[in-house]
């Protein structure tokens, strides 16, 4: 079974998912292609991209977290928000990566059992179904990070793809360096981890619920209507525009002290979980569930 789930959304947009992990996006212009994030690095993503387009590729990182930058070294042009410059040079802690692998192994085993019991299980949403790690994957050698950006992006910058332009929007909160990318001419918004239908991670030691609320508010005030939201994770990678307002409302409720239940993330760290409709805000008391994502 291939590691990636690849799907053409329309003529110019491809979803490249690592099922159960992360989603990268390939957006085609007339002169250049933009690859929005490069995935975990568990398997090479460049051959997938090259099978989809002959255009020169501009890799753009929405933020520095290891599951979005693992394939950065495969590309010549690497763009990121200016606040990511130093963060991209760091590596995810070995303990954190091992926690990630350990947390996934029982879930992969369950997915294998579900497929064996029913080959059509979740057939309509294969990007949700975890897959076994690729043959030859060496978890101990897996070390995403440490690859510098070749260019930095600031608020309002435009990335020219020919007949399409992506505007940079600084959106800290999930991480301090977060950016979103918006094509106002076509209404396509790439949000990284700023908007997610399902678990919205804002419990890291570097996260800021207040900053995230401001960032979501900025997306709600875009002068050109958003037609489609392309997120970095699933439940659904392409979300309705209403997710912007719903996320803003969820963050407001958390700020006002909405009830929560205790839970754990994929790393096994504790967190507070407040569910508001289809947005689940994962937040922290700033103590027990706070931990670093880089060395």
Automatic annotation (TrEMBL):
Residue ranges occupied by any Metallo-beta-lactamase domain in the UniProt entry: 21-233
TM region(s), chain numbering: none
Coiled coil: none
GO biological process: antibiotic catabolic process
InterPro entries linked: Metallo-B-lactamas, NDM-1-like, RibonucZ/Hydroxyglut_hydro
Top-level taxonomic group: Bacteria
Family: Belongs to the metallo-beta-lactamase superfamily. Class-B beta-lactamase family.
PANTHER family named in the record: ACYL-COENZYME A THIOESTERASE MBLAC2, METALLO-BETA-LACTAMASE DOMAIN-CONTAINING
Record-given protein name: MBL fold metallo-hydrolase
Organism: Acidisoma cellulosilyticum
